[in-house]
Amino acid sequence: MSSEEKEDKHKRTRKILKIIGFSILIGGIILLISGIPTKIRGDSMFGDFDAPWFETVSTGMGMIGGGIAMIMFSSFLLFVTYQGRIAGYMIDEMSTKFDTQHEDDYERYEKIIEESAKKRATRGNRVEGIEPSADMNRVQNVKIKCVLCGALNDEDAQFCDQCSEPL
Fold this sequence. Notes:
Blueprint: H1 3-44, H2 53-123, E1 143-145, E2 152-154
Antiparallel strand pairs: 1-2
Helix pairs in contact: 1-2
């Protein structure tokens, strides 16, 4: 069996499971909704010894329980059928969240570096009343904070030194 045939078979199976899952879900909801008035009707018969109180209440409870069981089973079927789409959606959401966060951090660091360079250019690396020293002319290392563990890494690092998360 080729990979295309397998994929077609899986698509047909998923389609059938979706139809069955939604059918059972609708049947469970109908059974649940129709079981509630039956139970209420049975509760109102309590004390009337000629009325079939026990049968009505037990029928209503059975309908409610059966409806709940059908809804739970159909939820499982539908989860299994849509599992790939759910996982894909979660991955897309997480990557979008982290991408925008990294972009915001990058833009913030870029602004800080630009402002610092402008200040140095206008002041000539001097503060009024203080002579330049060897410490003022040394190169500053910019550190990037890891989103996952919070460790500080060199600005040119691709991965976190502590947890190996991509930066």
